[in-house]
Design a protein that fits this description.
about 140 residues, alpha/beta, Nucleotidyltransferase, domain 5, 3 helices
């Protein structure tokens, strides 16, 4: 005679995979990456930076302002009037953020100084000029 197997109370549950622990880990990792990410607003144009042997990395950069060779000032992917760049930067930056100005090597020094002055007049003290590191 054949014996029949009766399904026990645990046989039906063993075939299901519990996804809750995996989802918990994924959400914790997502929260970790969101919290540790630094957000930098790009300027939106390609710049040929000048070279310097004394260039050092800036860690607290929050905003990039670009000055092209033809004298256009770019901020957050849009062209900005050089006289109003300070107002726009102040609206986009937090209290502890810094600004890096990416001036093309062919741009005039006068325009670079004017942009720096407008940003300082808006109350931002952390300003740096970007350069490519050249080996001595």
């Amino acid at each position: 005679m054949r014996k029949r197997r009766r399904p026990g109370p645990l046989e039906g549950d063993a075939s299901e995979i519990n996804l809750t622990p995996m989802l918990d880990v994924v959400f914790i990792m997502l929260i970790f990456f969101i919290v540790t990410t630094s957000f930098i607003k790009e300027s939106g144009v390609e710049i040929q930076r000048p070279e310097s042997s004394a260039a050092t990395p800036q860690l607290e950069t929050q905003l990039l302002v670009a000055i092209t060779r033809d004298g256009a000032v770019w901020l957050d992917g849009q062209a900005v009037d050089a006289h109003r760049v300070g107002e726009r930067v102040a609206a986009l930056i937090s209290d502890d953020g810094g600004v890096v100005i990416q001036a093309d090597r062919e741009t005039t020094t006068g325009l670079l100084i004017e942009v720096m002055d407008r940003i300082r007049e808006a109350g931002i003290e952390e300003i740096a000029v970007a350069a490519t590191r050249r080996e001595p």
